[in-house]
């Protein structure tokens, strides 16, 4: 059975454990997902399962998105069928908003529905998401720089980087120096998060701690490979 699922970050709250301890948790709406494609070593060169989460209105989906999940009538399809070519299986579901491939996490059939119960016996998971995009930020916000002093000749440059180069030798700025620039909007994996609760009725997964991204952001949940 496939051990992985797609979902949506709902937000954070706290729950009480059996011993009365209050722990912070992130609520994830995990599934249900549909298996859209199955990659094989013989045909694609690798083994993977493609999942889709969140229905997309057909009027907003392109023809290629609709044809990815359902068989559409076309001249090319008729020619292939007439030539005896077997067309790939379709999931027969609605177009999906969020589509990702999971490798090495089990097998599934095209059209199968994956629910949060696939993680019912998993102790810890890795959650992959996209962090909040904060645009172009300076070094204080982006890297946590202290900033310059507010006395002794520092005039209106208190939040600037300061000097970045060296002397005449080597006469250049070293690669990888921390500077201002784009902050956030990056793929981040939160590893080894403990599964606190699995709500099969409401398709909710509660994991301990924070998860990358804003509330409403799409995430990928899979069993962790961290050994402690």
Indicate the overall shape.
Answer: extended
Q: What is the CATH class of one domain?
A: Alpha Beta
Strands, count: 12
Helix content: 10-25%
Topology pattern, helix = H, strand = E: EEEHEHHEEEEHEEEE
- Mean pLDDT across the residues is 89
Q: Please identify the oligomeric state.
A: single chain
The rounded distance between the terminal residues' Cα atoms is 25 Å
Determine the CATH topology of one domain.
Answer: Double Stranded RNA Binding Domain
**Poorly predicted sequence stretches spanning 5 or more consecutive residues:** none
How does CATH name the architecture of one domain?
2-Layer Sandwich
What is the CA-atom radius of gyration, in angstroms?
24 Å
Structure description:
The chain is mainly beta and 228 residues long. The chain has a domain at 33-114: Double Stranded RNA Binding Domain (2-Layer Sandwich), CATH 3.30.160.810. The protein has helices at residues 41-44, 63-69, 75-82, 139-143; strands at residues 5-16, 22-30, 33-39, 48-55, 96-103, 113-114, 124-130, 136-137, 181-182, 187-199, 204-208, 218-223. The strands form three sheets. It has a six-stranded antiparallel beta barrel. Strand 1 (5-16) and strand 2 form a beta hairpin. The longest helix is centred in the middle third of the chain and has 8 residues, at 75-82. The chain is extended. The model has no long low-confidence stretch (mean pLDDT 89).
